[in-house]
Amino acid sequence: MSDYRRKEWKKFRESVIESDGGKCVHCGRGEDEAVLQVHHKRYIKGRLPWEYGTKDCETLCKGCHAELHGLIKPRSGWDYLWDEDLDDLSGTCQNCGTSIRYVFHI
């Protein structure tokens, strides 16, 4: 079973979203406008996703979360220099180690 399907994660996820007022901390959209996700600001080896303080996480909509991890190009707040299409998921996010397709130089 995925850690993100466990009841401990679901309870922790709800507490983070509630602590952020039920809205994306970047764009301000709520659950009625977007899919909300919980982003870990940092990772600690050996910890399960719900074994963090709420201050170590933030609520992001799916779009803002994808931007943060380099899955899609950031919409605003950056000076765009250039991007590199890696043609597949061959890159690695510096924050979490997730595979990425695009590298944005900002």
Key terms for this structure?
alpha+beta; single chain; 19% helix; 2 domains; His-Me finger endonuclease fold; globular
What is the topological layout?
Blueprint: H1 7-19, E1 36-40, E2 57-61, H2 62-68, E3 82-85, E4 91-92, E5 99-100, E6 102-105
Antiparallel strand pairs: 1-2, 3-6, 4-5
Q: What does the model show?
A:
The chain is built from two helices and six strands, in the order H-E-E-H-E-E-E-E. It folds into two domains: 68 residues, His-Me finger endonuclease fold; 34 residues, no CATH class. 19% of the residues lie in helices and 21% in strands. The protein is an alpha+beta fold. The termini are far apart. The strands form three sheets. It has a two-stranded antiparallel sheet. Strands 3-6 form a two-stranded antiparallel ribbon. A hairpin with a 6-residue loop joins strand 4 and strand 5.
Concise overview:
By secondary structure, the chain is an alpha+beta fold.
